[in-house]
Design goal:
It holds the Pfam family S_locus_glycop. The protein is of the alpha+beta class. Helices cover 25% and strands 28% of the residues. The protein folds into 5 domains: 145 residues, Orthogonal Prism (Agglutinin, subunit A), CATH 2.90.10.10; 138 residues, no CATH class; 145 residues, no CATH class; 108 residues, Phosphorylase Kinase, domain 1; 200 residues, Transferase(Phosphotransferase), domain 1 (Orthogonal Bundle). It contains 18 helices and 45 strands. An 8-stranded mixed beta sheet has the order 26-25-33-29-34-31-32-30. The chain has a 5-stranded antiparallel beta sheet with strand order 35-36-37-39-38, with helices on both faces. The radius of gyration is 37 Å and the shape is elongated. The structure holds 2-acetamido-2-deoxy-beta-D-glucopyranose (6 copies). The site of one 2-acetamido-2-deoxy-beta-D-glucopyranose has 4 residues, from loops.
């Protein structure tokens, strides 16, 4: 009896005095003061008022008892109290419904309420050991629970997702700042419009996505499988279990695993933390986004991100950067575009392995379909751009179909297979790439053999003291072309018909062709008349360009020798050569190359030239840079072509300017530097000179030729400070102030490139830096005023033999 009395007494004393009442339940008749807390039965969580914003605001929240800083839920995020003593926590409290937070200093105004439809029935609120605060009615039914209204923290048992019956959205939103629980910029929500996946949003934009649930884990978080000893992941609704009435994701701690929480922090990062009991602190277990490839849309549409690649962003095979210039400047957000448009009828799929699936918003998902069915469906729908399996369990099942751009694809460990729709010709090009490498190896081996046999023949010639017709015999030696049999090329160009002819020059003719696989090519047929020169040029060109790989150099796809025919097969440049634009009589045609495009072409040519001079394995002087030798692809990317007279040049690391050789003069008037044209002194500065002329031509739309001496004209305008008068009239009106300034820079660089003395011309590396204004520009002196063209009084192209005759 005494004992019972003592127990009762001590309990009541405890109740009366305790500020941290050891109660987990608040009944309708009781209230809690601002300095009192509810404590979950196992004292794992507490509910009460906590200060924030430098202790100037008070919030009702739930935190871990062992770690009061780890607040897992906040009630009055939008309406903080100014003092702790003002707070009264009650159930119903005769005003509002459910659990309420009242402001005692404002005649018990309701600051926050759990108000729900069944609020009036609320009888008690209880804080559970899970961290869930539940409000119950008379019958003990839960009428409201904090787990259905999470704030920035995701605890075991909290669901993120959507309730399809009520439309309720279970999402997280970050705090405004580490010390301010009011709602911040970031939200963590389930996107259910495709294959369900979780997105982090900030101010109306996605910043990160987990990738769709694939039956085992989120597509973009392969490391989830490694946490399975600690956590159990549950996903509801992904596999067509529509009966569940919800799409949700939650995790649970496995027995014996430490306490854990997942937080959407103030920088929009999902942090999974576990409690380290021995250190009495939280340790960061995982966080996402993990790297720059997780940043939403890092590589734009149809881009694919690869963190271990130095350039990070690439395009999916069959696609190319939409704006190569922006990509070059590492701005990849513009993404990639198809090389060849889809034909609907004859497309196929390219298998991209090991990726986080692209964003599935707007995708069609069918958990019942097989991969084979999926392929068929995608093929039969002209708008379908890709497909993949939906569930990786077992042999895989389900079908996801994409209909537009593929956004936010990246490589991940243990990633999934994505089948990307491509036009047949792009697929063939991919298949041929491997073959092409082998072919190039064969070509190179062939040339080694050729050179050996040449050496042998010369040796024989010297021994016998007799003239040997070297070229004919070597011509026979490489008479077989492994890449393109002659018949194929003949068929591709309609038997080298007039209609297919797209160009001609001293070397012979160029024909447009279409290979049996649909690929468009340009076939250069070297003229038979000049077989000696032809074979030399031919060997030179194949030998050089087969080894050169650069965006701004035209690509050699293969070659062919048939009896006396020598053919070079190049990628086809749909926009032909630069001169057809800049020197066109039609003003509209000239205006199609706006300032931006012209600038990109100038930079492209400069980069191609720099590659030739310094970056390729062989340092090369092109010798014949001119507007007709700059080709433009479908995206107006400039590609330098015609290596027929290019010269390999070993500078052995010495200063380029010092490396001069004397050589046979070949080239085109108007583009030849004086020292080369007059004395045959050849150095890299010859190309710099040609580049300077070309640059001025691109800007002005005028040829440097014959009686029109563009350099002298430019210099006159420069001296008079009327630079922008040089600008092509067809585009001048459209240029902004910044562009006119850019044009002035270009003109200055152009003048520096055409200085009389080769020593005063900048090397290509400096030219590029000057064009992008990363390097100060020197003041040009009086440039070459009497061009070779005017000296000779000659106009038009000078053929090689003309010059040799001199
Ligand atoms: C809690 O607040 C009440 C009234 O606001 C006060 O009487 C009591 O002393 C406070 N207790 C503690 C431990 O601060
Ligand atoms: C926080 O409050 C203290 C004193 O109340 C003040 O000295 C301090 O400057 C405040 N800090 C900030 C960041 O406002
Ligand atoms: C809850 O409040 C309503 C009035 O808003 C009142 O009628 C009801 O009796 C209250 N219930 C409890 C349990 O206090
Ligand atoms: C959010 O989490 C990331 C990763 O743990 C961390 O680097 C960053 O500092 C955190 N941001 C804030 C505001 O705490
Ligand atoms: C990056 O490119 C996009 C379009 O491709 C453009 O809108 C954006 O302004 C560019 N950003 C920068 C920093 O240049
Ligand atoms: C493809 O998309 C276009 C435009 O979005 C639409 O008009 C057309 O109906 C779609 N075709 C199919 C087969 O879905």
């Amino acid at each position: 009896m005494d004992q019972l009395f003592l127990t009762l007494l001590s309990t009541s004393i405890l109740l009366l005095t305790s500020s941290a009442a050891a109660e987990s339940t608040l009944t309708a008749s009781a209230t809690l003061g601002g300095n009192q807390t509810l404590v979950s039965p196992g004292d794992i969580f507490r509910l009460g008022l906590f200060p924030a914003v430098n202790r100037t605001r008070w919030f009702l929240g739930i935190w871990f008892t062992v770690s009061p800083d780890a607040v897992v839920w906040v009630a009055n995020r939008d309406r903080p109290l100014l003092t702790q003593s003002a707070a009264v926590i009650a159930v119903n409290g005769s005003r509002g419904g459910g659990l309420v937070l009242l402001d005692a200093t404002a005649s018990n105004a309701v600051v926050w309420s759990s108000s729900s439809a069944a609020a009036t029935a609320a009888q008690q609120a209880q804080l559970l050991d899970t961290g869930n605060l539940v409000v119950r009615d008379k019958e003990g039914n839960v009428v409201w629970q904090s787990f259905e209204h999470p704030t920035n923290t995701f605890l075991p048992g909290i669901r993120v997702g959507k309730d399809l019956r009520t439309g309720a959205d279970w999402s997280l939103s970050s705090w405004r700042a580490a010390d301010d629980p009011s709602p911040g910029d970031y939200r963590y929500v389930m996107d259910t419009s495709g294959a369900p996946e979780l997105h982090v949003w900030s101010r109306g934009r996605r910043t990160y996505r987990t990738g769709p649930w694939n039956g085992v884990r989120f597509s973009g978080i392969p490391e989830m499988t490694t946490f399975e000893d600690m956590f159990e992941f549950q996903f509801t609704g992904a596999d067509g279990a529509s009966g569940a009435g919800e799409v949700s994701y939650q995790f649970r701690n496995r027995d014996g695993s430490p306490m854990s929480r997942v937080l959407l922090n103030e920088s929009g990062v999902m942090q999974r933390m576990v409690w380290d009991r021995s250190a009495a602190s939280w340790s960061n277990f995982w966080s996402g986004p993990r790297d720059q490839c997780d940043t939403y849309g890092r590589c734009g549409a149809f881009g694919v991100c690869n963190v271990v690649d130095a350039t990070v962003c690439g395009c999916i095979r069959g696609f190319a950067p939409k704006s190569p210039e922006e990509w070059y400047m590492r701005n990849t957000s513009g993404g990639c575009g198809r090389k060849t448009p889809l034909q609907c009828g004859g497309d196929g799929f390219y298998l991209l392995r090991g990726v986080k699936l692209p964003e599935t918003h707007g995708c069609a998902v069918d958990a019942g379909a097989t991969l084979e069915e999926c392929r068929r469906r995608c093929l039969s729908d002209c708008n379908c751009t890709a497909y993949s399996g939906a569930d990786i369990r077992g042999a895989g099942s389900g079908c996801i179909q994409w209909f537009g751009e593929l956004m936010d694809t990246r490589f991940v460990d243990g990633g999934q297979d994505l089948y990307v729709r491509l036009a047949e010709s792009d697929l063939d090009a991919i298949k041929n790439t491997k073959k092409f490498v082998v072919v190039i190896a064969l070509v190179i081996t062939g040339f080694v053999l050729l050179l050996l046999s040449l050496g042998f023949l010369i040796w024989m010639k010297a021994r016998r003291g007799k003239k040997v017709r070297v070229l004919d015999e070597t011509g026979d030696f490489i008479a077989e072309c492994p890449t393109y049999p002659f018949e194929i090329i003949r068929a591709a160009t309609n038997g080298f018909s007039e209609g297919n002819k797209i160009g001609e020059g001293g070397f012979g003719f160029v024909y447009k062709g279409r290979l049996p696989d649909g690929q468009e090519v340009a076939v250069k047929k070297l003229s038979k008349e000049n077989t000696v020169q032809g074979l030399k040029e031919f060997k030179n060109e194949v030998d050089l360009i087969a080894k050169l790989q650069h965006r701004n150099l035209v690509r050699l796809l293969g070659f062919c020798i048939h009896c006396t025919e020598r053919l070079l097969v190049y990628e086809y440049m749909s926009n032909k050569s630069l001169d057809t634009f800049i020197f066109n009589k039609n003003e509209g045609r000239r205006a199609t190359l706006g300032w931006k495009t012209r600038m990109n072409i100038i930079l492209g040519v400069a980069r191609g030239l720099l590659y030739l001079h310094e970056d390729s394995r062989h340092t090369i002087i092109h010798r014949d840079l001119k507007a007709a030798n700059v080709l433009l692809d479908g995206d107006m990317v400039a590609k330098i072509s015609d290596f027929g007279i290019a010269r390999r040049f070993s500078s052995s690391g010495a200063d380029q300017k010092d490396c001069t050789i004397t050589d046979r003069v070949v080239g085109t008037l108007g583009y030849m530097s004086p020292e080369y044209a007059m004395d045959g002194k050849l150095s890299f500065m010859q190309d710099v000179y040609s580049f300077g002329v070309l640059l001025l031509e691109i800007i002005s739309g005028k040829r440097n030729q014959g009686t029109s001496n563009l350099i002298a004209h430019t210099w006159r305008l420069w001296e008079e400070g009327r630079n922008t008068d040089l600008l092509e009239p067809a585009i001048r009106g459209e240029c902004t102030g910044g562009e006119l300034e850019q044009a002035t820079t270009c003109i200055q660089v152009g003048l520096l490139c055409v200085q009389e003395s080769p020593d005063q011309r900048p090397p290509m590396a400096d030219v590029i830096h000057m064009l992008s204004r990363e390097k100060a520009l020197g003041q040009p002196r009086r440039p070459v005023m009497s061009t070779v063209a005017t000296t000779y009084g000659h106009s038009g192209r000078l053929t090689i033999t003309d010059l040799e005759a001199r």
